[in-house]
Amino acid sequence: MALTASRALVRQTERWFVRRGVPFMIEDYDFRRHVLPRMLPFLAFVSVTSLLWLVRQWADQAYWWWVLAGTLAVGVAVWTGLTAFGRRLPRFSRRTAGAILVCYAVMPLVVPALEFLISKSNSSPDVGVGERIGAHSTTFAGAVAAFLGIFAVLFAAAWLATSYGVVPLIRRGLRHAVHDMRNSVRIQGRALPTLLFVTLFFFFTGELWQAMDRLPWARVWAVVLLFAAVTVLATATRLRDEIGRVEQDLHPARLSKDCRRTPLAELPMEEIVPDGALRPVALTGQQVGNLLLMLATRQLVQATVVGVGLFTFFLTLGLLVVLPETAEQWIGAEPQTSAVLFGVPLALVRNALLLAAFGSMYFAITSMSDTEHRRQFFAPILDEVERTLAVRAVYLAVRDIVLPRTTPDLTAKPAATPDAKPDPDAKPHSNAKPGPPRQPASPEAVSDVRSDL
Question: Residue 381: how many CB atoms within 10 A of its CB?
């Protein structure tokens, strides 16, 4: 295997992990070398667009909109350019990373300071100097505190989202949602009969209609979020057990199959796996959490697609079966209607939404336990985990080939054993091949490899 090709494969496979939303599969994954380069576009966008705070100074002038549009355009251009740069996964030195963090930390002080200077220069001369300084100092302190809090929250959110690959997971989740919606007939045809058997009875309950007619929308969405939280909790608990039972078949044939459409597809697996199979490598807690997030996202997408089908079904059923007189009798008063929804009773909309959320939660849980649902809906999700672990095993094998053979210890001297005799009981390695003696690598080659990896 060519050395340059191996280095390229390592970097390309790391980018593949990032695009799949599992960046923690990268070996020696850390903040400075892997997270900060991908956070840089967002941090630069926040820093540039924070200058919009100063646009308030020209709020009454004609060119206010031009300043606003120009600032946003610059921010978007910076984000786009740095995103293209970050896709190459550059690795910053300590000095570069420190400079980036210092620049970001200074911006919450620079923007209020500029506002303080502009406000001070634009103050009316009729106001006393002491009053102007006191008022501006109070405003400056409050603005600094607000900016520090906002920048800290945005940095923490960007760090979490980037570390765990939330944006690629959302992107993949949307693609899965489009795919599932195209196959919605098949999915709904398999899931709806069981879900309707569980939820249809509650739809004709008068007490539920009364509650939904009086319940504000904020509380309705709070109930939906509660069902989603239960779904995530149950899914995470079950998936943690499933990951421990995932079969890692790391034989060459299986590895070749799983590595298709990846940067490792062209590798000769027989040379990567000289002993017949690779050994599974234990996962860290953060790697397990990254896989759980990937699986939970996929599970929630399927549940959402099923929930949309349930909502449509109950809304249609209510329009066909529940007459206005029946709804008034169940509610005890004339039902509220919505002009946006063409006079549809709000109780019907909220009822359908609540049952759809409950049915989605039930579907997500039963798809992991029921044998038939597990085969149809959950097994393909576990296949993604098995493929990710197989690609990771090959990636680690390639990385182990690159690093030890190209970074020898130049300071070590071979022990002088002129009288050494061969061991008569020693057996040659089955994979050993005769060849010319290995020459020590030059310091320039070692330095190049270390800087590249």
Answer: 22
